[in-house]
């Protein structure tokens, strides 16, 4: 099996890459620049993690998306916590990953969504993933599975497993500052220091 894995430099997607390699899955990591405020730090963390795993990272430059679809994740004039919903972002990610999967002959794509109880937005649910998989298979003309390997996990379990697997030097703050802000959605998930 081969998978196109959406990787962001954060803990969840980096852990997914580690687990895929451990299971002998051929992985094609892809990072999406959607115009996010944290682009530089996310990309640097992602490049470092993929290099450590011996994987070649593909970077999709869709930076214009963040100009068109403004949110606290893309526009510094908006509040990063209260204005975090970026409409269509996860569908955009899945579509780009699926198109890449089609090109490289991969069977599936993966995204780092956690347990549905932690969902804040409609594009973080199991129903969304099921419908996205059906749509992707239709528009690609062949079956491409949509996987969320951490869908049964809560953040504390992800942190524990990541420590066990030796995942380090990830970056998850939406502001992109050297020191994570401690207040955005990504930082609030932690309650402990980023690994």
From TrEMBL:
Its EC number is 6.3.4.20. GO terms for biological process: tRNA queuosine(34) biosynthetic process. Pathway: Purine metabolism; 7-cyano-7-deazaguanine biosynthesis. It comes from the Bacteria. It catalyses: 7-carboxy-7-carbaguanine + NH4(+) + 2 ATP = 7-cyano-7-carbaguanine + 2 AMP + 2 diphosphate + 2 H(+). CDD domains: QueC-like. One of its GO terms (molecular function) is metal ion binding. The keyword Zinc applies. Keywords: ATP-binding, Ligase, Metal-binding, Nucleotide-binding, Queuosine biosynthesis, Zinc. InterPro entries: QueC (IPR018317), Rossmann-like_a/b/a_fold (IPR014729). It holds the Pfam family QueC. The keyword Nucleotide-binding applies. Belongs to the QueC family. This is 7-cyano-7-deazaguanine synthase. It comes from Sinorhizobium saheli.
